[in-house]
Design a protein that fits this description.
three-stranded antiparallel β-sheet; six-stranded mixed β-sheet; alpha+beta
Length: 427
């Protein structure tokens, strides 16, 4: 990048001019890609794909300072490598593009998020996440997206908006990595909102991410539905297992740590897409378990209903295997762990009805009576795509995943994938 230079006597006047030129240089550095290499007075074509609002503002200021002239003939063009959509209202324009300007999602305002979600209406609410909520969104052109927000009034996990902002930053950095962006079962971020003040609580503080994901519903909401077939359930199990195998294959491995059916969105073809990983650890990410992180992070053991007693505070890949095992048990038994269950048990100080505790008791009973050890819900046994052999095999696999007698007895996610691929249904 060409930089402004200044020489002259050391005076107050010269210092002001130098600061002004330094400010110009800083603004130039904010421009990404080819724009950053423009020389003073260079002409820039206004590409048919609109620039992000922040870049347009910087370009205009630089033009006024004489650094760039905007004309119809170009020496540089901007490349936007994926789809885009425009949202216009009250003179505001919002650009949502996956991967635009080097893979950076656009910064949005609260007003633009309100436009997408119809003011976060109840009809667009999909589910609660560990640290907030997720909504269905739609542009005026009818393009559907998903919008996740971090909330400060989390009655289950007692988190704050400051932690949400930190998790948002890490999530955006994680999703920006090339190898991650190409993984089909991880979300693609196309926008974000970071509207809050440090140390000052305001009504309407907003920390959010917009995803290029047309949602059907969360897996948590689909599990109990009769329309969610056996074939779809096993397809979800295999593809989610493949995602975890992919994450664990990195050195060091990525550990999700907060696996939850409410964090898995099903797209319109019932394919699973993981959209929340607020406790993600490992890979190229900073060490969340180090002394530099807060007390809250170290005390979080995962999501209620999925917490592995053997891996509490001693995280390994086997903790994710446990979480997957709970998901698999839910898929075959049509049982879920609801947020209301957590709040009710806290209110009345009673044990929480855990799916894996139910499964262990039921599985032990079936083995003692020497009957077919299968925890598949009766309504699924009548599904045309169901076969008893697969039901027994999946049940046994799920019970191995949630085994709490010895971590070594649990399979790796690679072994889980091989086992699911051998199902008669999926051969």
């Amino acid at each position: 990048m060409e930089r402004c230079s200044y020489t002259g006597p050391d005076s107050k006047k010269n210092s002001k001019k130098k600061r002004r030129l330094d400010d110009q240089n800083k603004r130039l550095m904010l421009l990404r890609g080819p724009v950053a290499n423009l020389s003073p007075g260079a002409e820039l074509l206004e590409y048919e794909c609109e620039l992000l609002e922040s870049h347009k503002q910087i370009l205009e200021e630089l033009r006024q300072l004489g650094r760039i002239s905007i004309a119809s003939t170009a020496l540089r063009t901007l490349k936007i490598d994926s789809k885009k959509c425009h949202v216009e209202k009250a003179g505001q324009e919002m650009v949502l593009c996956d991967g635009c300007l080097g893979g950076c999602p656009e910064k949005l305002t609260r007003e633009q998020l309100n436009l997408l979600t119809d003011n976060f209406s109840e009809k667009n609410f999909l589910d609660f996440t560990q640290f907030g909520k997720v909504y269905r969104g739609k542009t005026p052109q009818g393009i559907e997206v998903s919008v996740k927000i971090w909330t400060a009034d989390n009655s289950v996990y007692n988190t704050c908006i400051v932690e949400g902002a930190r998790r948002q930053k890490q999530e955006l950095l994680f999703l920006k990595q090339p190898e991650i962006r190409n993984q089909p079962h991880l979300v693609k971020s196309i926008g974000y909102c970071h509207d809050w003040l440090i140390g000052y609580r305001r009504d309407g503080d907003m920390v959010a991410v917009v995803y290029d994901l047309k949602p059907l519903d969360t897996l948590h909401n689909c599990i109990k539905r009769d329309t969610f077939t056996w074939h779809q359930r096993m397809n979800v199990a295999l593809k989610f297992a493949s995602l975890l195998e992919f994450l664990h294959s990195h050195k060091p491995p990525y550990l999700v740590r907060n696996i939850d059916a409410a964090h898995i969105m099903l797209d319109q073809d019932s394919n699973p897409v993981l959209f929340d990983f607020g406790m993600l650890h490992g890979g190229t990410l900073p060490d969340k378990l180090s002394a530099t992180h807060g007390y809250t992070e170290k005390c979080l053991l995962g999501c209620h209903g999925y917490i592995d007693s053997l891996c509490a505070r001693d995280w390994t890949e086997k903790a994710d295997v446990f979480g997957f095992g709970v998901i698999l048990l839910m898929l075959i038994s049509k049982r879920v762990c609801d947020r209301e269950d957590v709040l009710n048990c806290r209110l009345h100080d009673i044990p929480m009805p855990l799916v894996y505790n139910w499964a262990r008791a039921e599985y032990k009973k079936l083995k003692s009576h020497r009957v077919g050890c299968m925890l598949v819900d009766e309504s699924l046994k009548g599904d045309p795509s169901f076969c008893a052999r697969d039901g027994k095999k999946v049940t046994k696999l799920a019970m191995r995943c949630v085994d709490c007698s010895n971590l070594e007895k649990r399979p790796t996610m690679a072994e889980v994938v091989v086992s699911l691929q051998s199902l008669q249904l999926l051969i």
